[in-house]
Amino acid sequence: MPGPLTALPLPAFAARTASVGGSPIRDILSLTDRPEVVSFAGGYPAPGLFDTAGLRAAFDATLGDPASAARALQYSTTEGVPELRAAIAARATARGLETTADQVCVTTGSQQALSLLAGALLDPGDVVLVENPTYLAALQGFGLAGARVVPVPCDEDGILPDALEEIVRRERPKLLYTIPTFQNPTGRTLPGARRAAVAEIAGRLGLWLVEDDPYGELRYEGSHEPWLAAHPGAEDRTALLGSFSKVMAPGLRLGWLRAPAALLRAAVVAKQAADLHTSTVNQLAAARYLASVDLDAHVATVREAYRVRRDALLAGLSEALPPGSRWNRPEGGMFAWVRLPAGYDATARLTSAVAHDVAYVPGAPFYTGTPDHRTLRLSFVTHTPSEITEGLRRLGRALR
Fold first, then answer.
1. How many CB atoms lie within 10 A of CB 1?
2. HSE-CB of 115 using CA atoms within 13 angstroms
3. Model confidence pLDDT, tens digit, residues 61-93
4. Contact 398, 358 (CB under 8 A)
């Protein structure tokens, strides 16, 4: 009789999965998902500020009659429903960038747009330039695409154009990924003169620009800075990413991509392979919401609430943080960036913080290359000013 069969080992995972770690932010959130924790960790919009009634009415209207419901619950086009694409184009035009619906693809959050662009533009080994530090999920996405990620030197205002030009000439990168307005994780904003310089360099040296703008409508002070995509030299080479997550509701998972025609088409093909299309019912409800509600007025209310919360955080940092700490004053967005004094390690101190029922995100995972372990990111939008004050009191005890 034949002996027992010996099972062969399963084939290995793709090599790129071994080189890209999970998100420490998600790991932190799973540890702090308790009501007693004051979390400065996640970039979560304040749920108490969601326009629940307006969104409920939009969904009710979308599903309110058989013809509308049948369309909402059916498959749709990959690019997105015409009503929402037109509304997105109109909002972009109103913000100073002439846009048509044909230039827009609706995505399942702007995170998907980033993934689609990585699939459309990058081959294994291609060079991607990023700010340092930068958005962690972007680093994950580029890593999964097999790209080699190279940091561009930055200061407290962002990218240094002279350093960018030198690196572009040396590395011959495929694209630059940037969050020029209220950057994640630092909250900094790239000045207008530098934006013009970045656009000029990209046009002259043949570089794709991927401009991520999930926070741009959340400005609390200072002057509006035009998108990179609106600068001479950048018109035919910029993919602009936007999102409704921060101004409407993240649970809708609605983002958008504006790009030159050939790149948009390549991203649409990548999206067909990923998910066919973004949720039809969510798109139609969002389009109806935009047609019936003054979103700009709602965003103004959100901005004022977030401004007060930012000020509450900034007012309490000097007492909560050790002497010698430094932090910035973001003009908008969701995040403040902190650097602790010599001898402190923000990652090592997180355990103590969680034990004191407060949380933050250490800065180290946001870096490409050598991280600064003294840095940390604080999100100020989720909690009320009184909760922020209490959270800072706990943070001060944990750091001491």
1. 2
2. 16
3. 999 999 999 999 999 999 999 999 999 999 999
4. yes
